Amino acid sequence: SKLLPHIAVLDLTGLSTLTDDMLEQICSHSNAQLKRLSIKNCRRLTDQAVHTLVEWCPNLLSLDVGGAYNITPVCVLQALTTATLPLQQQLPQQQHSKTKSLSKLQELHASGLGWTT
């Protein structure tokens, strides 16, 4: 059963214990209903979190990843156009699947990402 099928807005701002795996558990149980998500200042999240959003949250309209300095701007920009999951995250039959993106996203807050290389 889905844990959060009715939740459309989720604010996890500043949740210092939130990990990529925890976010995947939340998103995979959201029944693709999330429209607005804030993971601002969730500093344990990495680019894998963005891949999770692309995979499980295709209907996101608003996303705040500001201050999540372990998420790279390149990954966020790729998610806006097309983003493929790393091969280790794909099932064998999915290795040639079409790319996905956050194509419905209308609002993005991304200040304070890992802008330096």
The gist of it:
This protein is an alpha/beta fold and 117 residues long. It has helices at residues 20-28, 47-56, 73-81, and strands spanning 9-11, 36-38, 62-64, 107-109. The protein has a 4-stranded parallel β-sheet, with no helix packed on it.
- What is the makeup of the main sheet? 4 strands, parallel
CA-based shape: globular
Distance from N terminus to C terminus (CA atoms, Å) equals 41 Å
What is the SS-derived class?
A: alpha/beta
Q: In which order are the strands of the major sheet placed?
A: 1-2-3-4
Helix count equals 3
Our estimate of the beta-strand percent is 5-15%
Helix content: 10-25%
Show unreliable segments.
87-98
The counted number of beta strands is 4
Describe the 3D structure.
- The longest helix has 10 residues, at 47-56.
- The chain is globular.
- The chain has 117 residues and is an alpha/beta fold.
- Strands 1-2-3-4 form a 4-stranded parallel β-sheet, with no helix packed on it.
- Mean pLDDT is 84; it is low at 87-98.
- The chain contains 3 helices and 4 strands, in the order E-H-E-H-E-H-E.
- The termini are far apart.
- Helix 1 (20-28) runs parallel beside helix 2.
